[in-house]
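Notes from hallway chat w/ T.B., transcribed later so I don't forget. T.B. wanted the structure written out for a chain they're using in a teaching module, and asked if we could keep both sequence and structure tokens in one place. Agreed to drop them here.
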Amino acid sequence: MKPTTLSLCVRIPAFFLFFAVLSVSAGFQPLIPSVASFTASDEQQPFVLSSATQIIVDSAFHTSGSPSLESFAQTFRDDLVSITGFTSLSSVQVGNLSASPPSRCPTEEGYDFEISSQSYVIKGSGSLEAWWGTRTLLQQVALTAGSPNGISLAAGFGSDTPGWEVRGFMLDAGRHWYQPSFLGMAPFIRIQSILNFSRPISLQTFHLHASDNLWNQDIISGPDWRRLYSAFRFRPSPGSPIAELAPLLNETWSKHEFLALQNTCSAHGVTIVPEIDTPGHSLAISKWKPELSIPGSPDHLNLSHPDTLPTIKAIWDEVLPWITTNEVSIGADEYDPALADDYISFVNEMASYISGRTNNTKTIRVWGTNEPSTRLSIDTSVTIQHWDFPGDSIPVQLMSKGYRVINSEQGFLYLDGKTSDDGQFPWELVGDLMWSGAPGGGGWAPNVFSRTDESNNTEPGNPLLRGAIMAIWNDWGNNATTPLEIYYQLARSLAVFAEKTWAGSGIRSTELSRDQFDSIYGSLNAAAPGQHLNRAVSTQPNNVVFQYVNVTQPITTSFESVGPPYTLTFTVKPSASPKKAQISVPLFDGSSILAPYDSGVIFAGIDSKLHITPSQTLAFEDTTTHLLYPLPYTFPTDVPTRVEIHATQRYTYALIGGKTYWWTTELDIWGEYMKSANMSFAAPAGVVGGFGFEGELRDVELLVGA
């Protein structure tokens, strides 16, 4: 059969991307986020995708855009191979194509698509808009793959556009360390499992909160305030005037790493907006220059000190050349209202300074903060990111004064890593709130700030409402969560959020219902290309990942890590007299044990390791923070013990000798009380045995399912 074509183009100028395919039948299914409109054509034959597909970019426009259309096309091809398994799909080609521009004019970020038996044409207003169209195609393919008729897409034409400019999420990386490699493949751009695929959930902003500190009132107001964890994540260059600001170099991103991260995000249609939070949340700066802090409040900088503003400007001087986006956040939240004039002057000065240092190419945003000055006001060029209604800002009042607003209302859009103080925030966004929590029983959308008072919400089309950003905070620090646990919290929440920030609520007849979303989310999350955050693996019969009878030397498997749910069983007999040299290894609670760093490792993977410690306990290690989480059980030495580990996304426990032992962590909740919380670990499946363990390991079995 003669191959057909798929083309991707842009409005003015016109870009083209063509596919060659075959043909059979399928309906147009709901997607996440929903497509604004689709009308089936009279043509009976559908468009069918096959391994014969060819991708061709018009030679006249293949370099247009940033990233270019050709670059987006290459990423699209890779994603298509990931979903379909068509490894023989040919490389992207550049050719001399011709086609008329779209008959409709999509709005900014909008695109049209036309499907016939011979072609699938995507027409956008730029290379990014054409990229959004490829996300729609990928979801159609994912939901159709595996059907008896093959990958078959019904003929017709559609049009789509996001309801708001800003659609994103914020990750608190100031109080929890994340490797740049994880940020680049994880929830954060490949939540483009979400971000990049779920049309890329069509979120396009990754707000990266890159400086902060933990909070404990007794400690921060006392003489030992320096021992509170704080971090500044950008690694200053050698000899930099701010070099001493980041003493934890192993928990910083180099300029090269951050530029690479931005490039990775950009290649998937996502923009990083970095945040350096001052003058509050600034304990890292006060540890470096204590004379700049407010006495008794070392996390607050004294804006009246003559060196404070020059120091903050020097920090931005170091980091601004790293940043490719046209907007940054200076944080500026939760500062003393009694210092309102100093605060407002600071915000305005930083807005002017950053604009001037970047040749008027960068603007700033700040968190909405109640600063009741009677003399001064923040310049309206500054975007206000609202988060606390009505305590810190009332958005409709801000917009009435000419401010542009981003909705991050905590009552709808806040999560806290693992748990929150007294249940203030949920584990994931609350479905009842997102689908029916607005006044009158409607769903949430970026124009909704209040659950109960319609007068404090605005119209969806208010030009000063830029959009919305949901947030996940790490208030309890490194020991509270593993990076994958953050992904588990975010995955479904981001998909719901994406639908609501793209389509809104009560605006389009094609918006998803809750039932429609639930029916397709699982399939789309599992099919997302290039992310592997679920750590899903192929199994043998009976859900077996691997089995080993006797482990006499390290065995390297084909599995780097296996995500929950899983069951890992083994028999272990630790030696009574290990001979390895010992060093201090940190525990999650701030204490330490003596052990070689890789001593006693019986299982190892990219996310975790499982140790038999010198004190004969069984401890998981988080390979990001290198913290150990010991089980409250001590093994007898020179005696075989059978262990059965079960894990889900919410917990991990071991059955030993008929008793259940849980892996937990202790969280300091604002210095007011301690709270135990369960830990979830991926199975360390890359290497079985070895790494300094002295004893016997046998009868090993890893199963999918807990």
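Follow-up for T.B.: The two ends are 47 Å apart (CA to CA). Might be a good example for the class.
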